[in-house]
Model the fold of this input.
Amino acid sequence: MTATRFEDMDAAFEISDIGRGAGHLNFASGRSTRSPDTDYTGRYGFRCIRNPSGVRDILERARHRKT
Done:
C-alpha cells in the first residue's frame, strides 16, 4: 500500500463484492495499474477484505474528522 491523502480520495468509495462477506474497497482513481492494489481501470484500494462496508465507514468518518 502507498499513502493516500484524504484530499486525493474519490468523493464516493466503491465496493465490489467477491462473496462470503469479503470484497474490494476502491477509494482512489487514476492510479497506475502496475500496483497489485489497483484494478485494471486504475481504481486503487484495499483488496480481498472482510466487511468492506465497515472499512468504508471507518474511512468516511476519518475523512470527515480531518476536514
